[in-house]
Design goal:
With 85 residues, the chain is mainly alpha-helical. Helices cover 44% and strands 0% of the residues. The protein has one domain. The termini are far apart.
């Protein structure tokens, strides 16, 4: 599943996406890496690189992407779509 996400969402090779090994947790990401859950992409309609809109929202509220829940991600993306339309 995770390799399909890298190919399907066209992660750039220089992002060097890694997946936790068996028995590791998302919180065990090495320094310099962040953890993004597959549901962000599959159900939250999140894409990389993130839009400037998403970055601005996170910055405005003092949040990191890891603070976002799936429901919150969907709401921000819907809000962005409405603003753009």
């Amino acid at each position: 599943m995770s390799k399909k996400i890298v190919r399907g969402y066209q992660f750039a090779a220089e992002w060097d996406a890694h997946y936790p090994r068996q028995g590791k947790r998302a919180a065990d990401a090495p320094p310099g890496y962040i953890t993004l859950f597959s549901n962000f992409f599959l159900e939250g309609n999140f894409r990389l690189p993130a839009t400037n809109f998403m970055a601005s929202i996170l910055h405005h509220y003092g949040l990191h992407i890891s603070h976002m829940s799936l429901a919150g991600m969907v709401r921000v993306r819907h809000f962005e779509f409405l603003c753009r339309s």
